[in-house]
Amino acid sequence: MEFLNTSIGRKIVMAVTGLCMVLFAVVHLIGNSTIFVGPSGINAYAEHLHSMPLPIIMVFRAIMLALFVVHVVYGIQLTIENRGGRPSDYAVKATRKATFASENMIWTGLLLFVFIVYHLLHFTFRATPGLTLVNDAAGHFNVFAMVASSFSSIAGAGIYAVAMVVLFMHLYHGIQSLFQTFGLANGNTLPTITKAGALVALVLFAGFVAIPLSILFGIIKG
Ligand code: HEM
């Protein structure tokens, strides 16, 4: 347990929790993409998720919440520690160039924290104003109508578009950083790992941002 209080211990925790959340984001994007089929696609997908046994859903949510909280708390601790002047250690050292994304991980991370709280209030707790909360013809909750009502205004779609730019910046550095922490990057592999990380970040950005923008511009219609 003492290990978790070292700089490299904290980095490994950040990398493992971060990787789990990236995998969640990939699965979430694949699921959300059913919206391009139209109302029947995303409503059937949501119905399928909600028909899973409640204990499984709750355990999954508790694990995700724990990963998220640990990632945020350790991220804040690491930043305070690094700004205090202690050198940060990757498992294998490779030459790194500071980028805007790498210098601002704490700020993009905190902005994502605010976005996730908003997103949960929005679509999970459905507590934000102006949402269309109705059932579809089959009597199931109409997720499509809720999402479409949110993204039909510039402000509603704009919040998500800006948040996805922040997500892109965070993952642009975060994905290659986790490979370094796991000791998989060296001078030879770092350029490829950096490009692959940027590509994953770009695909997630493009996929997520396409949803609010397609609704705003009438490409996806109910
Ligand atoms: C355009 C972008 C997005 C859309 C349209 C969207 C849509 C949704 C919807 C409809 C739900 C509620 C699912 C339900 O209860 O049936 C949800 C839940 C959630 N979303 Fe997103 N999402 C987006 C982006 C993101 C991003 C970027 C993240 C974080 C990486 C994220 C994380 C979550 C989490 C943690 C939940 C709660 C899952 C649960 O209820 O167990 N979402 N999202």
Indicate the CATH architecture: Up-down Bundle
| Uncertain residue ranges | none
**Amino- and carboxy-terminal Cα gap:** 53 Å
Which structural class matches the secondary elements? Answer: mainly alpha
Order of helices and strands: HHHHHHHH
Please state the CA-atom Rg, rounded to the nearest Å: 19 Å
DSSP helical segment count: 8
* Average predicted confidence as pLDDT: 93
Bound small molecules, by name, code or SMILES, are: protoporphyrin IX containing FE
Give the helix level as a range of percent.
over 70%
Number of domains: 1
The name CATH uses for the topology is 3 helical TM bundles of succinate and fumarate reductases
Organism: Trichlorobacter lovleyi (strain ATCC BAA-1151 / DSM 17278 / SZ) (Geobacter lovleyi)
Keywords: Heme, Iron, Membrane, Metal-binding, Transmembrane, Transmembrane helix
InterPro entries: Cytochrome_b-558 (IPR011138), SQR/QFR_C/D (IPR034804), SuccDH_FuR_B_TM-su (IPR000701)
Transmembrane segments: 12-36, 56-76, 105-123, 143-172, 193-220
